[in-house]
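Record format v2
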Amino acid sequence: MAELCDLLAEAMGHSLPVGKVVLIGDCVETSGAFVLHLLLKRCLSLDSSFVVFVALSHPFSHYDRILRKMGCNLSAQKKNGNLHFLELLDFSARSKENSVDDGFCKLYNEIRKSVEAARSKDTKASCVYIMIDDISLLEIAADGSENDVLNFLHYCSTLTSETDCSLIILNHEDVYSSEDAPRLLAHLQHLSDIEIRAAPLNTGLAADVHGQLTVINKGLLNDDRRSGRRIWNFQFKVKENSVEFFYPGSQH
Amino acid sequence: MAEGLIVRSLRDGSLPGEHAPALCLEDSLPSPLASHSHAVFRHLLASLLSTGTGTAVVLVAFHRSPSFYLSLLSPTFRNSIRLLDCYSDPLAWKSNHHPPPSSHSPQNITLLTNLNHLPHFLSSILHLAKDLGAQGHDRVTVAIDSVTHMLRHAPLPSVLQLLTNLRCHEKISSLFWLIHTDLHEPKVISSFEYISTMIASLQPIVQLPDYANANISASITSLEENYSNAKFNVRLKRRNGRVKLLCEELLIEQGSVKFSSVPSVSSVVAQNLIPKVQFNIQLSDKERMDRANVVLPFEHQGNGQNIEIYDGRRSLSESQKDPSSIKIGGLSEQKRGNNNKSEKGEIHYIRDSDDEQPDSDEDPDDDLDI
């Protein structure tokens, strides 16, 4: 596919990750949501893929509108059973009947059943992806309980090894910038196999370049690849229906 | 050498009446992004299992699935290892909703579903150790990956108590665990270091100011270097109280770990500070001594007299009576013999008045009649 030849695809290994945890980090100056939208489109473009999208930030119509401009019909994908969209704008793990732990347990089991059902269908889904937008809202849903959020993410990450699905999560890193020890952010970085960070340019705002993207592909211990490149840094420009990636000074 | 000492200590176990040796393996995100510590962890596991001395391992898996660890080890070692699966369902979120079949887990993997109950956790480990002992393994090492995950489910004193109980138990010959230092307060790390007999920490080859907020675009080369190399600092506590420090370099190549000795820090720093040019810009010892003996021009009068550093505030005669004036006799004695006084130029400045203030606003040329 021509789309998987860009710099982001190269940094991620020329294919979408399988059985890995991908952490997308951004900040107020430079939103990383476009990476999530791009990966969502690429995941749904694969043959027999299945995506569970946990949306705490925006409603379905928001993503549908954006992906439609990028050439992907989310409504059709949802209708065909390739997308399980969990709209949780008012999600609160704690309720009158449940503790925070119980609330996350229920959410996890809903995701797990959806993934297992996709794997066990007659047209067995070969690639399954779980996407979460975003972690900072999960923390709010947990009444600020970092431990409960980490427990939930741990259980979601167990699905990556049990069912070979990938977990892609968006996190706003500057939420933790004022903390002396941003432990949740550090936990996420320890947990992730691939980190994608969107940041502003060092030189400030520009009309033709919207920011820079850093991809850290850590690989696994039994990775046969030689000790080669693991870190990429390039710039990007978000267009109306696509994203352009290029090295500094090489934009066409 | 450091790695060999560690493996030997873990393999040999403890003397009768002593606690089992314990290794605390530390890493952090900048060093080297927390992946090399697992390479070292796996390397230690393989080294212990391959010694052929009947060593077996109880591996407590929190961070990765048990099947991941089994896939890293040779099949010949699988009879010598028992895994306590604290990864798949530590809080019983799955089993409460969907109990797994009884034959779900392989024989050498035991599932733990109530991590919050530490006594049951301890008894599970000891049960596996006894099982290995019953199969003829004289020594059982407990490996925990990692205590960082344990601390999310249990308070620090309980975890420390559990590790101490493991060290005291007769069935456990040695113990090692992994901890991520940037996820805990320094006092937590210190607490684990106190109960360990060996501390091995992984440090980045290139120190970066702040990994989390670093300007990565400016430090990509350094980060790449940190991926393939790391410093392996080991502190060994001897029974007599002596502490041995070792520093080696760790190299990761295609999943295997290699250790090598490094030059001393001072020589490395000195080499880095001196620019590499074709000229000899270093001084020999004789040259250093000669340089120290050189008297600078303003430090002597050239005639054997005391040094008079005139500051414009006192008259010359007063300075001659000052006992604090410095006298250098070396050069002056030689010059006196030559009677070169008449040939030396001297400048004597006599102030008009002791009341004259330095930097006066009065123009000295005002009295000229031009």
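The first strand of chain A starts at residue 21 and ends at 26.
Chain A touches chain B through 42 residues (CB under 8 Å).
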